[in-house]
């Protein structure tokens, strides 16, 4: 029996959701970078301090995240984004009464 569900593993751990995939790939919770609704100014400041410390310890992290994002998009764009190619209507040319294109 085959499953149509895409199985994704990061460092030997299965990511069941997109958030889990990002957390496993980054090694940090997504909320550290994006924040949470309703956080206080103090909570935001502490989160941003932690994020700055992580970036100071790993200055290549933004490049790694960008590379991972591109790889995932290239490999799984149709499943992730439900992409449907758009077609352009054919261009109609006007024809003059004498038969020459206008």
Short description:
This protein is mainly alpha-helical.
Question: Mind explaining what this structure looks like?
Answer:
Helices cover 51% and strands 6% of the residues. It has 102 residues and is mainly alpha-helical. The protein has a two-stranded antiparallel sheet with strand order 1-2. A hairpin with a 2-residue loop joins strand 1 and strand 2 (13-15). The longest helix has 21 residues, at 61-81. The protein is elongated. The relative contact order is 0.07. The model has no long low-confidence stretch (mean pLDDT 77).
List keywords for this structure.
mainly alpha, 2 strands, two-stranded antiparallel ribbon, 102 residues, elongated
**How would you characterize the largest beta sheet?**
2 strands, antiparallel
Number of strands: 2
Order of helices and strands: EEHHHH
Beta-strand residue percentage:
5-15%
Shape: elongated
Helix/strand-derived category reads mainly alpha
Question: How many whole angstroms does the radius of gyration measure?
Answer: 24 Å
Please mark out the parts with pLDDT under 50 across 5 or more consecutive residues, or reply none: none
Helix count equals 4
Describe the secondary structure blueprint for this structure.
Elements: E1 8-10, E2 13-15, H1 18-26, H2 30-34, H3 41-57, H4 61-81
Antiparallel strand pairs: 1-2
């Amino acid at each position: 029996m085959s499953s149509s569900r895409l199985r994704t593993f990061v460092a030997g751990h299965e990511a069941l959701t997109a958030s889990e995939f990002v957390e496993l790939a980054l090694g940090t919770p997504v909320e550290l970078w994006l924040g949470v609704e309703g956080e206080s100014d103090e909570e935001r400041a502490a989160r941003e301090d932690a994020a700055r410390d992580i970036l100071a310890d790993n200055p290549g992290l933004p490049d790694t995240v960008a590379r991972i994002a591109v790889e995932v998009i290239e490999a799984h764009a149709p499943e992730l984004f439900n992409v449907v190619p758009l077609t352009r209507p054919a261009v109609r040319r006007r024809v003059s009464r004498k038969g020459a294109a206008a």
